[in-house]
TrEMBL record:
Lineage: Bacteria, Pseudomonadati, Pseudomonadota, Alphaproteobacteria, Hyphomicrobiales
Highest rank taxon of the organism: Bacteria
Cofactor(s) required, per the database record: Zn(2+)
Gene: hydA
Domain Amidohydrolase-related: 48-419
GO molecular function, one term: dihydropyrimidinase activity
Assigned protein family: Belongs to the metallo-dependent hydrolases superfamily. Hydantoinase/dihydropyrimidinase family.
Pfam families registered for this protein in UniProt: Amidohydro_1 (PF01979)
Entry keywords, A to Z: Hydrolase, Metal-binding
SUPFAM superfamilies: Composite domain of metallo-dependent hydrolases (SSF51338), Metallo-dependent hydrolases (SSF51556)
The name this protein goes by in its record: Dihydropyrimidinase
Keyword flag Nucleus: no
């Protein structure tokens, strides 16, 4: 079998840093050690050999707000690989009333073009007996063990507390992990209507309509509901101190709650919405919106302290033309920003180079923690013999300025335009296939495979101590008084 050896680099994992060569055969890592030989040699001198990134949160070719997100599984995964990310987890999104299994079929069809491996989360956008029953098939037969709930997007994707509690209990039975988009959709809808009525219709009003408190409230509510349902919880795109605070408090009380800041929220702030140019501001409209420096600091601290575990993108890319659907009414601006190819270089530049994160923490939050939480470790997220050869050979000396012209993403701008990056892939390997070589993109459409994820056996054991104390028990009594006296 043809072998590839990554030679002369320093292996960096979530817990170790050491000099070693890494040998790859048949798409997996077969040997790690000194002086390895092989058919093809990749020179990693001066580089860090790390597990390829996993982006746990993307929306590729997703029908949303009257259009489709522009990056599909081909351009999206090409963008991912160019920035060192070797696996994406996308959301299969049934429209309300649609079968979950039908939605998976749609996502199966779209994803045949993927350049790197991928997995799916299932969105619960409505509730009923059919959904209850299909959830079991999704977990048992479709390899999907995570269910996303939108607490916002009222009248479209939003589920209420009744539906969410029902679905969380079902997740607990099935060994599945619920995810939440935590914003109070009722309050957002009222604020949107009020802002429009006052003539506040520009993209800046998008941010006014989604203050940090709507996120803090919803995050705390979802955590409490998850605890009552007896299931852990994963909070997507944690963007505010209030949401982070709720997650910290829950973890301190023994609950398994995970928080996922986005690279956008870590590095871009709400001053973007004050820009004089409508297009500039609208291109940055996403939910939750960018926040101020206080919230950014909180997110960075959470990553360092371990109260937030994962950095994602929520990659959901719309062109300027699509953003202009919302001229005159900010509620019609398609929500979403890109970030797939910039997540790792931006986090390295703003995290590792600045000293906010160690290299090992960088690997943990971009790959290993995600693989563990989503139950694909150590197939993914590891430099270990037997693991998939999803590897990034990271050159800390490579520099570039981010521009839309040089990006892989199919849209016409980049929210990180002009940022100076230090640290980029010299090579990216996806199951052994070299897809970035000395900065040159050599992806192969259709190379990516679906990664099935098993249910979690620990889910039902994850109750907090509060649950045990308040578990209802019927009290045995004597001397019951006659009624009506
Ligand atoms: N937020 C976005 O900005 N886009 C896609 C969905 C979401 O929750
Ligand atoms: Zn969301
Ligand atoms: Zn300008
Ligand atoms: Zn999302």
């Amino acid at each position: 079998m043809a072998s590839t050896v990554i030679k002369g680099g320093t292996v960096v994992t979530a817990d170790l840093t050491y000099a070693a060569d890494v040998k790859v055969e048949g798409g997996v890592i077969t040997e790690i050690g000194p002086n390895l030989t092989g058919d093809t040699l990749l020179d990693a001198t001066g580089c860090y050999v790390m597990p390829g990134g996993i982006d746990p949160h993307t929306h590729l070719e997703m029908p949303f707000m009257g259009t489709y997100s522009t990056d599909d599984f081909e351009s999206g995964t090409r963008a991912a690989l160019s920035g060192g990310t070797t696996m994406v987890v996308d959301f299969a999104l049934p429209s309300p009333g649609q079968s979950l299994l039908e939605a998976i079929q749609m996502w199966d069809n779209k994803s045949t073009r993927a350049n790197c491996d991928y997995s799916f989360h299932m969105a619960i956008t409505w509730w009923g007996e059919q959904v209850f029953n299909e959830m079991e098939t999704v977990v048992r037969d479709k390899g999907i063990n995570t269910f996303k709930h939108f607490m916002a997007y009222k009248g479209a994707l939003m589920v209420d507390d009744d539906e969410m509690y029902s679905s969380f209990k079902r997740c607990a039975e099935l060994g599945a992990l619920p995810l939440v988009h935590a914003e109070n959709g009722d309050v957002v809808a009222q604020l949107q209507a009020q802002l429009l009525a006052e003539g506040n219709n520009g993209p800046e009003a998008h941010a006014y309509s989604r203050p940090a408190k709507v996120e803090g409230e919803a995050t705390n509510r979802a955590i409490m509901i998850a605890d009552m349902a007896g299931v852990p919880l994963y909070v997507v795109h944690t963007s505010s101190e209030q949401a982070h605070e709720a997650i910290r408090r829950a973890r301190q009380n023994g609950m398994r709650v995970y928080g996922e800041p986005l690279i956008q929220h870590l590095t871009l702030d709400d001053s973007e919405y004050g820009h004089h140019d409508w297009d500039h501001a609208a291109r940055r409209v996403m939910s939750p919106p960018f926040r101020n420096k206080k919230h950014q600091d909180s997110l960075w601290h959470g990553l360092a302290a371990g109260s937030l575990q994962v950095v994602a993108t929520d990659h959901c890319a719309f062109t300027t033309e699509q953003k202009r659907y919302g001229v005159g009414d900010f509620t019609k601006i398609p929500n979403g920003t890109g970030g797939l190819e910039d997540r790792m270089p931006m986090l390295w530049t703003y995290g590792v180079v600045t000293g906010r994160l160690t290299m090992n923490e960088f690997v943990a939050v971009t790959s290993t923690n995600i693989a563990k939480i989503l139950n694909v470790y150590p197939k993914k997220g590891a430099i270990l013999v037997g693991a998939d050869a999803d590897i990034v050979v990271w050159d800390p000396k490579l520099e570039k300025t981010i521009t839309a012209e040089s990006q892989q993403s199919a849209i016409d701008y980049n929210v990180f335009e002009g940022k100076e990056i230090k640290g980029l892939p010299r090579f990216t390997l996806t199951r052994g296939l070299v897809s970035v070589e000395d900065g040159e993109i050599k992806t192969r459409e259709g190379h990516g495979e679906f990664v099935a994820r098993e249910p979690f056996h620990a889910v039902n054991k994850a109750l907090s101590k509060w649950k045990e104390v308040t578990a209802p028990r019927k009290v045995q009594r004597t001397g019951i008084p006659a009624s009506g006296v």
